[in-house]
Structures are given as structure tokens and as C-alpha cells.
Automatic annotation (TrEMBL):
Signal peptide: none annotated. It comes from the Bacteria. Residues 47-141 form the Histidine kinase/HSP90-like ATPase domain. Gene3D superfamilies: Histidine kinase-like ATPase, C-terminal domain (3.30.565.10). Coiled coil: none annotated. It comes from Roseateles depolymerans. It holds the Pfam family HATPase_c. This is Anti-sigma regulatory factor. Transmembrane segments: none annotated. InterPro entries: HATPase_C_sf, HATPase_dom.
Length: 144
């Protein structure tokens, strides 16, 4: 059995949700929501900061490179461990070269090139689904 098959989503509706990422203000709201969720899960301050930073970077990518999209969140459980899973989904142009996009310092715009690669280092699980012309979904999970 893989680790992914053992993970369950906590069942109440209040433990999952979706937020639009359509403006700079939405990025701030996404960070605030992630802060509330990590505090609810009683993450350490360091782990809260890592998840909020990753969410901020991925929200910004969703807005700037994906033309806007959504942040989906859910509280998850794997045995006794609890975690927070976030997905950033857009219908933008997609990423043509995933390996290049995950390389530190590479940017397709005017940023520092740390968004994807930096976010990947801040979380326990990182998944990237993309195809040119079909948008992008980045899913991250941090475990307590």
C-alpha cells in the first residue's frame, strides 16, 4: 500500500474549502486562511510559516502565470498524523518544461525564480500536474 492510499480526508465540510485567486487581495486572504488552518491544526510557528510562505508563492504564481484560479484546501489524516493539503489550480497556459520550472533561479517572468522550487522545499509532499494549454495544478501537503 502506498502512502497516498492510506491518507484520508477528514469528513466534515468545514474541513475543506475553496477560495478564488483573482487579485492581489485574494493572495492576502489565502495567506490568512492558511494561517488559520495551520493554527487550528496546532502546527509549530516554524511549520505555520513554511506553509504560509509556500501558499503565498503558489497563489502568486496562480495569479500571475495562470491568469487566476483557485486555492482548494482540506485537512487530511494519515493514521494519527494530521496535515493540511492545498491545491492551486488554474486554466492558464500550463508549463512547457517542468524540470526547468522547478530549477532554482529560473523564471518565465520578472520574479526571483524561487516560487515552485522554494515551495517544494517548504512542504512534505509536492505534486505538479500541468500540460501546455491545459493549465496547472500544484498540490502541497504539510504534516504535523
Amino acid at each position: 500500500m502506498t502512502a497516498m492510499t492510506a491518507i484520508t480526508t477528514m469528513s466534515t465540510e468545514s474541513e475543506q474549502g475553496q477560495m478564488p485567486i483573482r487579485s492581489e487581495a485574494d493572495i492576502v486572504l489565502a495567506r490568512q486562511q492558511v494561517r488559520r488552518l495551520t493554527q487550528q491544526l496546532k502546527f509549530s510557528l516554524v511549520d505555520q510559516t513554511k506553509m504560509i510562505t509556500a501558499a503565498s508563492e503558489l497563489s502568486r504564481n496562480t495569479l500571475i502565470y495562470g491568469g487566476g484560479g483557485d486555492m482548494l484546501w482540506q485537512l487530511v489524516q494519515n493514521g494519527l498524523r494530521q496535515g493540511l493539503r492545498l491545491s492551486f489550480v488554474d486554466q492558464g497556459p500550463g508549463i512547457a518544461d517542468i524540470d526547468l520550472a522547478l530549477k532554482d533561479g529560473w523564471t518565465s517572468g520578472g520574479g526571483l525564480g524561487m516560487g515552485l522550487s522554494g515551495s517544494k522545499r517548504l512542504v512534505n509532499d509536492f505534486e505538479l500536474e500541468t500540460a501546455p494549454g491545459q493549465g496547472t495544478r500544484v498540490t502541497i501537503t504539510r504534516w504535523k
